[in-house]
Structures are given as C-alpha cells and as structure tokens.
Design brief:
Number of strands: 11
Largest sheet: 9 strands, parallel
Helix content: 25-40%
Strand order of the largest sheet: 3-2-1-11-10-9-8-5-4
Distance between the termini: 9 Å
Mean pLDDT: 96
Shape: globular
Oligomer: single chain
Structural class: alpha/beta
C-alpha cells in the first residue's frame, strides 16, 4: 500500500511555498504522494484558503518522485476546457506525476456552491461531471475536440501539449458506498476513493461492488482509503486498498503536519 499525505490548504497551509516545502520533506521521508483539498472556502473560524492548482504547481516544482493531485476537485464548478489546459500543463511540469481526483462536491460543508451561484442539484452536477470527464479524456488525446453536450461546448479545439502520462492522466473518482451511479463512474476510470466510510467491512463491500462493475478489465486500478495517522491499515489493505490517504483536520497546524510526515508512510 502506498501512502499519500492529504492536506487541507487552510490557515498555516494556505501558503503554496510552505506546502511545497512540506511536500519535499515528505518525499525525503519516503511518502509516495502529496495531495490537496480543493475548496474555495471553509467554515469559521477558518478564513485563509489556498488555491489548489497554484499549490500543486509549487509541489511539482519542489519534488521529483511523489504523485500529486487534487483530492478531489468538484469538477462541475470548473470549466472543462480550462481544466484540460491546467491538467496537461501540471502533468508536463511534474513529469507525468499527476492524478486527477474528481467528485460531485457538497454544499453542506462550507456553502461553496450556494454562496457562489453554482449548481446545487446533485443530479445535474453528476451530469456535468460525466460530460466534463468526456471532454478531458478527448482533450488529453491531443486530437481536435468537438463536443456539443447538454452543459458544455467545445468546437474543434486541439489541446497541446499532451500530458506526459499515457494514455491519459489517471482519474480517481470519489463516491459514497451504496450510490450506484457514482460507483459506475468510478468503475469506468482509473481509481476509486470511497468517502463517508464507517467501517472496514463497508469499505470491502464498496470495493467488491466496483470490481464487479469493472468485470474483467485488466487495466491497473487504484483504490484509496482515508484513515487517521496511526490507524490499522491492514484490514483495508486486505480488502484491496492500494493507497492510504491521511485524514487530517481542516485546522491542522504546520507543526502537526510535520509530525505526521516524520512518522512516515504506513507500515
């Protein structure tokens, strides 16, 4: 199982330079990935929030080996053509180390969608997410893209340079266990990040459901699990987890993060 440092970009971690230095420290300690939250705001008393894409660029420039990416970006509030450019550039900058985590996002945590005029209906955001992923996969091919969908238009645009990672940037999708449509989406791409877990048994059931939906697909496939530092990862590894993602509180301090880094990857 690989270990990913998963950072909420708030308060002391709202400085991309600081996070880039943390990523370099994590790489030296043997961590396999450094991932960041993608939030525009958070609940009080948190006030300072960093942009994830600027921060990821800083991480890419400060490291050589760790995988990196947003975990997860609520893709429906981003323009897919712009994300195509951002992801390709970030993958080139990092030498093919980007993983794109995507999901619906939720308004209940910080009122991000309602306070910025974004779509609130989960069903509609699901449609937008699926359509945006179609555009991204087409854009990463390097071929001209023409897409006329319900939510987005791309009229004969070629997105070059292509990402370094072939055949495309890996896509991990977040999903709540038991929700059929998100599980089907997860099965179509390159990784699964179940959220809202209550037990290792529930995790195992979700993994089994996604594997069943994938059928005999032989392509490499990652499954991430969020656990607090010091947790017993063995039951999750046995159930199929390939990545451990650190569960860190939104207001975690810089010193606390450095303590987690020093503890090292999961044994």
């Amino acid at each position: 199982m690989r270990s990913g440092l998963w950072l909420p970009l708030f308060e002391e971690l709202a400085d991309p330079g600081v996070v880039a230095r943390l990523a370099a420290e994590a790489e030296e300690r043997g961590w396999h990935g450094v991932f960041v939250w993608d939030q525009l705001r958070w609940r009080e008393p948190i006030r300072q929030v960093a942009d994830p894409w600027i921060t990821l660029a800083a991480i890419a420039a400060a490291t050589e080996q760790v995988r990196l990416g947003p975990m997860v970006t609520p893709l429906a509030r981003r323009r897919p053509a712009k994300v195509a450019r951002e992801t390709a550039s970030l993958d080139v900058l990092s030498g093919g180390r980007l993983i794109l985590g995507v999901g619906l996002g939720a308004d209940r945590f910080a009122g991000e969608f309602s306070k910025t005029g974004e779509e609130l209906d989960d069903r509609v955001r699901g449609e937008m997410l699926d359509e945006a992923l179609e555009i991204l996969v087409a854009a990463w091919s390097g071929e001209p893209v023409t897409h006329r969908g319900m939510h987005y238009l791309v009229d004969d645009v070629q997105f070059l340079p292509r990402p370094v990672h072939l055949p495309r940037v890996p896509v991990w999708t977040a999903a709540f266990p038991g929700h059929v449509k998100p599980l089907r989406r997860a099965a179509r791409y390159d990784g699964f990040f179940p959220v809202g877990l209550e037990s290792a048994d529930q995790f195992a059931e979700a993994v089994a459901a996604v594997r069943d939906l994938r059928g005999d697909n032989p392509a490499p496939y990652d499954i991430a699990v969020e656990l607090s530092p010091g947790s017993d990862v063995a039951p999750y590894a046995e159930a199929g987890a390939t990545w451990w993602m650190t569960a860190l509180d939104p207001g975690i301090s810089l010193d606390e993060v450095r303590g987690v880094i020093r503890e090292g990857p999961a044994g």
